[in-house]
Amino acid sequence: MSEFLDAALGFPAVLFGAALLVVIAFWLLVLAGAAEHDSFQPRLGTDAAGLGGVPVTVTVSLMIAVAWFAGLAGSVLVRRSGVSGTAGTLLSVAVPAAALLIAWGVTRLLVRRLRDLVPEQAPPSRLDFIGLTCTIRTGSVSADFGQAEVAADDGSTAVVQVRQTGRSGDDVLVAGSTGLLYAYDVDGEFFWVAPFDPALDPRSAH
Question: Does 198 have pLDDT greater than 80?
Answer without folding.
Answer: no
